[in-house]
Amino acid sequence: MANSNFGFPIFILAALLLASSTIATSQAPFIVAHKKASLTSLKPGSERVSVSIDIYNQGSATAYDVTLHDDNWSSDVFGIVAGNTSVSWERLDAGVVLSHSFELEAKTKTVFYSPPAVVTYRVPTKSTLQEAFSTPILPLEILADRPPVKKLDWAKKLLAKYGSLVSVVIIVVLFVYLVASPSSGAKGSKKKR
């Protein structure tokens, strides 16, 4: 009875090892896409969104007819300033990275949730198009009221925390300097004989 309890987990482990070795040795592209967006305030009431998408082929084969679609930017909220939201490449070799970027201008104040971009590609061994999705981005607070950035906050915090300690150290150093150094008044008051 003890042998049958160990037989099933060993069978499962062997099946998992066989499946992972089969997947590892298959010749196929493995597409990973990373999407980033950043906001830049040009002036009050005007903001630009810079979007960049990096597409990695982590597989062991070339992907063909690679197309990137990121058409989820609403025309009511954004206007395209530079670049395109869709682009195509003939191929993406194994271990290579493709990058694409575009810039949008915000039209209205909102919180925007952008879904992942879609990457389609063709594998020579399969007749259907394959799909991969990019990483999603965090919600963008477009034209949000942000408090002004205070540049010397760190200096104020340091002064509040260590100001008294610094002043005591300075006073002690000045006192030691005055006691240890010969005074200039003593040199001038001595008479020559």
Topology overview:
Blueprint: H1 2-25, E1 31-43, E2 46-57, E3 63-69, E4 78-82, E5 86-92, E6 97-106, E7 110-112, E8 118-122, E9 130-133, E10 140-142, H2 153-180, H3 184-189
Antiparallel strand pairs: 1-2, 2-6, 3-5, 3-8, 4-6, 7-10, 8-9
Structure commentary:
By secondary structure, this protein is α+β, with helices and mostly antiparallel strands. It is 30% helix and 36% strand. It has three helices and ten strands; from the N terminus they run αββββββββββαα. The chain has helices spanning 2-25, 153-180, 184-189; strands at 31-43, 46-57, 63-69, 78-82, 86-92, 97-106, 110-112, 118-122, 130-133, 140-142. The strands form three sheets. A four-stranded antiparallel β-sheet has the order 1-2-6-4, with no helix packed on it. β1 (31-43) and β2 form a beta hairpin. The chain is elongated, with a radius of gyration of 33 Å. The model has no long low-confidence stretch (mean pLDDT 79).
